[in-house]
DNA sequence: CGGATTGGTGGATGATTGTCAAACCGTCCC
DNA sequence: GGGACGGTTTGACAATCATCCACCAATCCG
């Protein structure tokens, strides 16, 4: 499982706050984050993510941005990729930030 | 003081998380945020903000983005503008977020 | 093998953005 | 009135970005 190959991602200490915020300052990527909040691994298929309206290459692009910002990690197994939150790394580097973000994402839109 | 005119800004309930994160996903605006963290009012002069390298119109643009996102408020008094954090509004709408962000901004860059 | 599945790459395109420069505007004050 | 001051607006420009499309690559399975 977790000893499969992983796509390139920044080391925990290299995760940059502004880069993370820039990554999350997009509605699609914010939606991906909330999908990943369950801690589970997720496939890249737009249909599994409520993103039917987007081309698969667009979703691929957004997932790359999240991964390169250090928000997610991607495990490669066969022809599937399993994306999940780097919760431990984020919590260690920016204590309380992820929880506050996920809670804020629930705030009513009005 | 606080009954002076204020530049247009979103109502507390209209503050949008993604818009806030997008606003803060820029190094200059993140630096402004940390400057405003003291809760005090600040002038717009780049030289008072450690932004000597930027044109005053560029700083004006960044401050507008922050204000329109709901991060800051701008009080107009005579020919001066006094910018400050909307801490109460942000704390009410996104509990813990601002504190986590300001703490995260202190994390070593490595 | 050969087709289907899963997902990424590269190019193109239109929109947004960060920056500067110059002109502008209201206010203060001599 | 007429500068000087503090900021904003507008325009220009290059860079970045989100999106789509067509094609590609690796893997799985019958």
Automatic annotation (TrEMBL), chains A, B:
Entry-linked SMART domains: HTH_ARSR
Domain HTH arsR-type intervals: 9-105
Keyword field: DNA-binding, Transcription, Transcription regulation
Cited CDD domains: HTH_ARSR
Record's keyword annotation contains Metal-binding: no
PROSITE patterns linked: HTH_ARSR_2 (PS50987)
Annotated PANTHER family: TRANSCRIPTIONAL REGULATOR, ARSR FAMILY (PTHR33154), TRANSCRIPTIONAL REGULATORY PROTEIN (PTHR33154:SF12)
Name of protein: Helix-turn-helix domain-containing protein
Species of provenance: Kitasatospora putterlickiae
Lineage: Bacteria, Bacillati, Actinomycetota, Actinomycetes, Kitasatosporales
């Amino acid at each position: 499982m977790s000893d499969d190959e992983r796509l390139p991602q920044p080391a925990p200490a290299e995760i940059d706050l502004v880069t993370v915020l820039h990554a999350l300052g997009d509605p699609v990527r914010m939606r991906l984050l909330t999908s990943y909040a369950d801690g589970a691994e997720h496939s890249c298929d737009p249909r599994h993510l409520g993103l039917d309206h987007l081309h698969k290459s667009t979703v691929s692009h957004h997932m790359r941005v999240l991964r390169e910002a250090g928000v997610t990690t991607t495990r490669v197994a066969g022809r599937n990729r399993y994306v999940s939150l780097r919760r431990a790394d984020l919590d260690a580097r920016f204590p309380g930030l992820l929880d506050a973000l996920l809670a804020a994402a629930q705030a009513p839109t009005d």
